[in-house]
Amino acid sequence: MRTHYLMVLVIGWIVLNDGQTMNASGEEPAPRHLEAARRDGHSHARPDQVRVTHIDLDLNVDFEHKQLQGKATLSIERRPGVSPKVPLILDTRDLTIESVSAGSSDADLTKVDYQLGKVDPILGAPLTIPLPSEATRVQIVYKTSPGASGLQWVGASGTSSGLHPFLYTQSEAIHARSWIPCQDSPGVRVTYSARVQTPKGLTAVMSADRKEDGDGVASFKMPQSIPSYLIALAVGELKFQELGPRTGVWAEPGVLDKAAQEFSDTESMVEAVEKRYGPYRWERYDLLVLPPSFPFGGMENPKLTFATPTVLAGDKSLVSLVAHELAHSWSGNLVTNATWRDFWLNEGFTTYLERRIIEDLYGPERAAMEWTLGMDILRANLKQTPARVEILHIDLAGRDPDEGFTQVPYEKGALFLLRLEQQVGREAFDSFLKAYFDHFAFQSITTPDFEAYLREHLLKTEPGKAEAVNLHAWLRQPGLPTDAPQPHSKRFDAVDLQARRWLDREAKATDLDTAAWSTHEWLRFLRDLPARLANDRMAELDAAFHLTDAGNTEVAAQWLQMAIRNSYQPADARLDQFLTTIGRRKYLMPLYGELVRTPAGKARAKALFAKARPSYHPIAVDSVERLLNKEQPD
Ligand code: BES
Ligand code: ZN
After folding, report:
1. String of b and e for 398-423 (b: at least 16 CB within 10 Å)?
2. Residue whose CA is at the smallest distance from ligand 1 atom 20
């Protein structure tokens, strides 16, 4: 008994001390409670023992077999004091491993044994590679599976021209492992290089500097160190148009002009952020317009934001998406959440920055409308979510990190920063943020790291002001703290008044004063209306404002949700068309969610899904499937 107890103590001591390595700059180790927070429960990797520092990819893009084939050569570094017996552990999901070699240079690689472990439904399978003690390179020859969760193989019919297929990756949160064997944790930063072979006539782009080598080969270099979830690749019939000296847009030829017009403010946005928060450190900022099945609005892949074509509204009304993805070049890509528990550090900061950019470019009224719409969505979201999901420093143990993808990290996170701004004043808060980005540049940090920095550099320097903010409530409690800012928009007051007049039957729809309304005001108007509206009232709105034919996807999605709820059949065909051409999860979930509330609707949802499914991304398929299989409450 007693020896056993002692052994546990000794092993415990070794395990605890294992994480206590000096950091790269040779500083003192971080306090233990900070180290514990740094362990990422969503990766099998042990970067505290052996760390990957560079990934070199050599990939062939095979559309016929929906497969990437090639090799990944990883540069590795054993942490000081870690025994040579400790293996390298990589994350994989649905990869076929053909061989693994290791050596001390690219020229000196010999085959080694490896073991592909048991598949965990959330994490995938660990690839364990015992290494010769002198090894600094590991090469894995592998293939992806056609159903890889991080890849979408879009058939020609899913593209704008209908002529060529399209492939793109989506690695966040933990899908990089489905196309690259890697330490798939945001706490591990790597540089990368790649050589990509595509069929002739198609162009490959990545989140990296690009060089055309001819014969369907392009090569890439990412010299800045980034987490694996920011490694990205897309292949299609792509053309480029410049927007400014360091900005531009890639898209299919038929979409390029429209995209260039919509995104023409991009260079000014980069300048606006730089003025407040320090230099843009990624040289170029380009955008890539994806096919409409892209399951997200945007993805902040460094140097090359991926964007849904549904933002091409024709009037720049949805460019907050560009502001958002660009802002990630500071919050997210430069200073990164170390684990998915700290996701709010990426998205809350970015949503705050996004609104500041919108204010700088389009004025305080537009920013106020966006803050207000955000708050409304957050409040609606909070009514439906369990308390544990309402916490910024969320506990995701045993859960898929996608479960943390709610309005909470975005809007509650942004409101927390707005609260701090209002408390200490804009000038002090802006300089705090600028120093924060500089201090943690190219590092991955946890919520406790942020808190420690905040205490030291804002709370202490603004005595008597900042301590009024209840950090514990904001970061560790559910719901909205009582001191949450209350965004307000005067333009929305006017909209609310028009909605009232119509609802009280003081005015007909055609008499409402809507001529100067922006997309935001239309969204507010539609959200002002009650859940139930009689068919003749729906028809009156439709006749006056052509809502069923709305080209703006935000407005259309809001209207279609109302149409489903009120069984407004004139919108049926539009709903079919919408759900079978657009795969953005933000729209799919509320629309399918509204359908499944009645038995007839559920049958329709299933039929529509069967038709649309081949064109959806694996992530979207998974989310919709879960929704359709869930028991509906009465
Ligand atoms: N990084 C996110 C997208 C994301 C988050 C993908 C988590 C996978 C897992 C991106 O920056 C984002 O927030 N996109 C939003 C649009 C934005 C304007 C709020 C989206 O796609 O809805
Ligand atoms: Zn984001």
Report:
1. ebbbbebbbbbbbbbbbbbbbbbbeb
2. 297
pLDDT of residue 51: 98
Of the candidates 459, 461, 480, 457, the one whose C-alpha atom is nearest the C-alpha of residue 469 is 459
Full-model pTM: 0.94
Query: Is the minimum distance from the CB of 328 to ligand 1 under 6 angstroms?
Result: yes
Which ligand neighbours the alpha carbon of 346 most closely? 2
pLDDT at 194: 99
Tell which residue, 341, 322, 321, 343, has the closest CA to residue 331.
343
Looking at residue 462, its pLDDT comes to: 84
User: Residue ranges of the chain with pLDDT lower than 50?
Assistant: 1-29, 634
pLDDT of residue 32: 52
From the CA of 127, how far away is ligand 2's center (Å)?
30
Of the listed 325, 359, 411, 594, which one is catalytic? 325
Q: What is the distance between the alpha carbons of residues 452 and 393, in angstroms, rounded to a whole number? A: 14
Closest protein CA for atom 22 of ligand 1: 297
Q: CA 574, CA 561: separation in Å to the nearest integer? A: 12
193 to each of 190, 280, 286, 416, 543, how far by Cα in Å? 10, 21, 18, 38, 55
Q: How far is the CA of 172 from the centre of ligand 1 (A)?
A: 9
Mutate to test the pocket of ligand 1, among 347, 358, 378, 623 (most ligand atoms within 8 A of CB): 347
Hey, is 536 helix, strand or coil? helix
Told to judge if 325 belongs to the known catalytic residues of this protein, a careful annotator would answer yes
Q: Give pLDDT, residue 96.
A: 98
- Amino acid type, 590: P
> Residue 101: what pLDDT?
98
Query: What is the structure's pLDDT at 30?
Result: 53
